[in-house]
Amino acid sequence: MKVYADTGFVVSLYKAETTSPSAAAMMGRLQGSVWLSPLGELELHNAFQLSIFRSEIDTAAATCKKQLFAADLANGVFVILPIPATVLYPKAIELAERHSATLGTRSLDLMHVAAALILEADLFLSFDERQRKAAQTEGLAVAP
């Protein structure tokens, strides 16, 4: 199965959140690597830095979380798949035209859905309800 995860899902694996148990359980059921886009990697690093800014974690904890993520990348838990901007942005614009007026989806959320569609994922991992609705409408299975 080809699985794509949005950033919120991945962050909840490294940072204690209400969604963390659900994310961990989902990862335990999956076989094979979970795909991320370069956008997801950027957002993950930014999420850790914002957590420092918000005094939720300190610099040492952020460094540890980044090291754990790097180890998971090296071990094939996650794979970052590049997507050319010339393909990603037009697809995200197409999705914005179809969904934002009715679902209230945000640009970065649509970029993740676009990435999953371009990569031909079977399953989209996200906790964001609007993003999940857009993904479902586009034919992707969503979890958890």
Which helices and strands occur, and which strands form pairs?
Layout: E1 3-5, H1 7-14, H2 20-29, E2 34-36, H3 38-53, H4 59-74, E3 78-80, H5 85-103, H6 107-118, E4 123-125, H7 129-137, E5 141-143
Parallel strand pairs: 1-2, 1-4, 2-3, 4-5
Helix pairs in contact: 1-2, 1-3, 3-4, 5-6
Describe this structure in words.
The protein is of the alpha/beta class. It has a single domain, classed as Rossmann fold. The chain contains 7 helices and 5 strands. It has helices spanning 7-14, 20-29, 38-53, 59-74, 85-103, 107-118, 129-137; strands at 3-5, 34-36, 78-80, 123-125, 141-143. A 5-stranded parallel sheet has the order 3-2-1-4-5. β4 (123-125), α7 (129-137) and β5 (141-143) form a beta-alpha-beta unit. α1 (7-14) crosses α3. It is globular. The model has no long low-confidence stretch (mean pLDDT 96).
Radius of gyration: 15 Å
CATH topology grouping: Rossmann fold
Helix and strand element order? EHHEHHEHHEHE
Summarize the biggest pleated sheet: 5 strands, parallel
Secondary structure category: alpha/beta
Number of strands: 5
CATH homologous superfamily (4th level) name = 5'-nuclease
Please state how the strands of the largest beta sheet are arranged side by side.
3-2-1-4-5
Keywords for this entry:
144 residues, alpha/beta, Rossmann fold, five-stranded parallel β-sheet, 7 helices
